[in-house]
Amino acid sequence: MNCCCLGFVAFAYSVKSRDRKMVGDITGAQSYASTAKCLNICALVLGLLLIIILIIIVSTGSLMILQALSELIQNHGGH
């Protein structure tokens, strides 16, 4: 459920951050780390939204199917 591969892009930025830190570029490392953090948060929020939407769609669809079956049984039982 990783939207637009944001988690992978965040991982790439975290690796860049680590590399910048290893060569002593603390400012560059902080910049990459900040971007990685933002991308991870966006991926998490979008993933949660997709899961919630999926649950709503599945539960709504299930309720509609149960209602249709109930009406079918009531109509068939009346004949």
From TrEMBL:
An example GO BP is: type I interferon-mediated signaling pathway
Q: Does the keyword Transmembrane helix apply?
A: yes
- Report the transmembrane regions from the record: 41-66
Kindly report the protein's main subcellular placement as a broad class. membrane
Subcellular location per UniProt equals:
Membrane
Source superkingdom? Eukaryota
Any one GO cellular component localisation term in the record: plasma membrane
Q: Which family does it belong to?
A: Belongs to the CD225/Dispanin family.
Protein name per the record: Interferon-induced transmembrane protein 1
What organism is recorded for this protein? Answer: Muntiacus reevesi (Reeves' muntjac)
